[in-house]
Amino acid sequence: MDPQAPATEIAVIHEEPSWFVVAKPAGLHTVAQRESGAPSVEAWLRAHRPDLAGLDECGLVHRLDLETSGCLLVARDAATRARLREAFSGRGGDIRKTYLALVEGRLAPGSFTLSFASRHKGSAKVSVSPRGEAETIGRCRWGVRGQGPGVTLVEVELLGPGRRHQIRAGLAHLGHPLVGDTLYGARPDAGAIRLHAARLEVDGIEVEAPAPGWATETRADGV
């Protein structure tokens, strides 16, 4: 993949006067990797949306992990970026975030309220516990969308501000790591992590990214 990521691999799926949403492919960094020069959405924006080059991270409002696909929000100006970042933090406005995740085992519909805290410096994982300081609390609820042999497809809504690795670490804490997520105890033979940012609701407008193959295939299996 070219470091700037060709337009055929990143699609703009919705545009508003002050912001737009792109569909990020799995395996692509969100922000530019200054040392490695690896492909990123930010690099693509610099190449294909030069009017955003003066904004921090070319207007990217939030980030998705390397292996997570789906909706990524981009602001067109600094004031909108600041407003939307506040909304993502839970301090102002309201942004609804819904994900699809494929987890190991049979998982029933449910929810969690857990504390997510960074480990020692340099650790890629976060620690999860039932209680913690208010600024560490993350909440989710989910429904079941399909099941296959030994796996469950769930649709997860983040409630309030998201925490780092909230879905990944939270579901693993409950004994259902995401398929492919070996960092949190998944089987090592399943390939990439199955997590997709399916929908964003911003300023009352809902945007949906096309579901990846693993999600549509599992959904077709039924419940």
- Helical residue percent? 10-25%
| C-alpha geometry | globular
Strand content: 25-35%
- What's the total count of β strands? 10
Query: pLDDT under 50 segments (min length 5)?
Result: 1-8
**Biggest sheet layout:** 10 strands, mixed
Q: Any guess at the CATH architecture of the largest domain?
A: 2-Layer Sandwich
Count helical runs.
4
Question: Residue-averaged pLDDT, rounded?
Answer: 90
Count of domains: 2
Describe what you observe in this structure.
The N and C termini lie far apart (37 Å). Strands 1, 2, 3, 4, 5, 6, 7, 8, 9 and 10 form a ten-stranded mixed beta sheet that branches. The protein has 223 residues and is of the alpha+beta class. Strand 7 (137-148) and strand 8 (151-159) form a beta hairpin. It has two domains: 1-93, Pseudouridine synthase (2-Layer Sandwich); 95-223, 2-Layer Sandwich (Pseudouridine synthase), CATH 3.30.2350. It is built from four helices and ten strands; from the N terminus they run ββαβαβββββαββα.
